[in-house]
């Protein structure tokens, strides 16, 4: 895979790749390695207020990371989607009830006031490239809109199935680059 694909075609192709990868022992091993690397990252160590999304099957499993961050006394904020493709972050206390959206994303069940003044945000996505620290998400533009309106350091956890040496999807003006990528291993050109 080296030719540039339109975003819709790429997302469909990449979702299948990630679904296949999720069934392998390498996925769990890489998720654990990414947790370890994340805990050592300076942006994570310095942050007090961290925003995140609970992972879906195709994404890096950060449940172990969440447990470690709570143990270190970090304040965690869970993403909440709103109409108009808007995103806010709500303080997530351990044990707070969650609900699953129609897209399969877990959010806080209770409504509370948003607090988007985060120190760090773990940004999910389908694929990432160190070239321009670029990312392609799931297609709603929630994170690009949020990052255009809020000043926050961003990190992405990248397993070998999400890694592309250079983007094979088109980059657009509204696409927001990550501040850093934590890459489990370089998979080479796809």
TrEMBL record:
Catalytic activity: (6S)-5-formyl-5,6,7,8-tetrahydrofolate + ATP = (6R)-5,10-methenyltetrahydrofolate + ADP + phosphate
GO BP: folic acid-containing compound biosynthetic process; tetrahydrofolate interconversion
Family matches, as InterPro entries: FTHF_cligase, FTHF_cligase-like_sf, NagB/RpiA_transferase-like
Cofactor(s) required, per the database record: Mg(2+)
EC primary class: ligase
EC number assigned by the record: 6.3.3.2
Keyword Aminoacyl-tRNA synthetase set for record: no
Residues where ATP binds: 7-11, 135-143
Protein keywords: ATP-binding, Magnesium, Metal-binding, Nucleotide-binding
MF (Gene Ontology): 5-formyltetrahydrofolate cyclo-ligase activity; ATP binding; metal ion binding
SUPFAM superfamilies xrefs: NagB/RpiA/CoA transferase-like
Binding-site residues, substrate: 54, 59
Keyword Nucleotide-binding: yes
Family: Belongs to the 5-formyltetrahydrofolate cyclo-ligase family.
Name of the protein in question: 5-formyltetrahydrofolate cyclo-ligase
Annotated source species: Lactobacillus delbrueckii subsp. bulgaricus
UniProt lineage: Bacteria, Bacillati, Bacillota, Bacilli, Lactobacillales
